[in-house]
Amino acid sequence: MRSRYVESATIYSRRGIYRGSLSKAFKTRSLPESADDGGIAATRRSTGNMSAIHALIPRLPIPTGINPPSGAICLTMTRNRQIRWLVKPAVFLASVAPSAWLVWAALHGQLSANPLGDVTNETGVWTLRFLSLTLCVTPVRRLAGWNDAIRFRRMVGLFAFYYGTLHLLTYVVADRLAGLEFENGIVAWTTARDLVATVASDVVKRPFITIGFMAWLCLLPLAITSTAAMIRRLGGRRWQALHRLTYVAASTGVLHYWWLVKADVRRPMVYAVIVGCLLAFRVWRWARAASVPTMRRAAASIRM
User: Fold this and answer.
1) Beta strand pairing status for 17-20 and 9-12?
2) Quick check: is 1 in a domain?
3) Does 87 lie in the same domain as 151?
4) CA dist., res. 249 & res. 155, Å (int)
5) For residue 75, is it within any domain?
6) CA atoms of 237 and 44, how far apart (whole Å)
7) How far is C-alpha 295 from the geometric centre of its chain's CA atoms?
8) Which residues in 23-175 belong to E strands, given as ranges?
9) DSSP per-residue codes, 150-161
10) Which ranges of 140-244 would DSSP assign to H, the alpha helix?
11) Residue 76: exposed, middle, or buried by beta-carbon count in 10 A (0-12, 13-18, 19+)?
């Protein structure tokens, strides 16, 4: 903690404008240091950046902006607000972009001679990519110390379910449904019955579809229980135990991709190595955590 002098600035508020040299008027009280040594430090949301200034100038409401002269400090957004209003929307748009490109390419004829295969392959590959990113969150937190990565895990996991669902719907609608005869029309009980029958037959007869369907079934409860309300309802331990299905989904997804490709397995092999390393990191952490009590008991027995 250290005290800072606030240099002159123009504070724009809802009631008017306050101009003057704030450094002569007051001294900021025990604000935490910022990482860049410039400007008032961004404090937690509970206290707020403007609490000190607002307490010393009670006639002004919380200002909506500051126009500092050159060399003066700038009251910045808090870290939480930066992530919430800037970083998360950028990550969301970047995650939606692949599906938007597929729609644009399909409408403008930019896909190959087998557009159904292109859409099926791309949605499946993006599912694996987002699953891999979800598994990367814990190693990034533990090894790099970037704890804010946990705030993106839910979004990335939901996008894995989103692309996995697109992958499944492409197969069900564009492949199985399009192959039906529609004797009583497309909106009919017989059409739904025939669709379920042909999908079930494929799931049973073709192993790579069976394993892929299992991967999607693992993602379904994870998406349903991703809300804060479900975390409170299930409890932390049960919720964490349920969400270990992510490991099963990633493993079965890689196996589904490997069996689908058959001939050229270089890309599935890359994802197999990535997922294998991420799972091996977790096994190493669990083994290390389990060995710590044993080592402590051994050390205690030696001292006795």
Assistant:
1) antiparallel
2) no
3) yes
4) 17
5) no
6) 28
7) 36
8) 65-67
9) GGGHHHHHHHHH
10) 153-169, 189-205, 207-224, 228-234, 236-242
11) middle
What's the length of the chain?
A: 304
Spatial strand order in the sheet of 17-20:
17-20, 9-12, 65-67
Residue 74 included in any domain: no
In a structure prediction context, what are the per-residue pLDDT tens digits for the chain, which is 304 residues long? 443 433 444 444 444 444 444 444 444 444 444 343 444 334 444 444 455 544 544 444 444 444 444 443 434 578 888 999 999 999 999 999 999 999 999 999 999 999 999 999 999 999 999 999 999 999 999 999 999 999 999 999 999 999 999 999 999 999 999 888 888 888 888 888 999 999 999 999 999 999 999 999 999 999 999 999 999 999 999 999 999 999 999 999 999 999 999 788 999 999 999 999 999 999 999 998 888 776 666 666 565 5
Identify the domain containing residue 231 by its residue range. 80-295
Q: Are residues 212 and 168 in the same domain?
A: yes
**Domain for residue 26, yes or no?**
yes
Q: Are residues 147 and 171 located together in one domain of the fold?
A: yes
Give the residue from 44, 15, 46, 33 showing the smallest Cα distance to 73.
33
What backbone phi and psi angles, to 5 degrees, belong to 209? -75, -35
The angle subtended at Cα 277 by Cα 285 and Cα 291, nearest 5°, is 20
What angle, rounded to 10 degrees, do the helices at 153-169 and 245-261 form? 40
Among 240, 219, 251, which residue's Cα sits nearest to residue 132?
251
Overall number of domains in the chain: 2
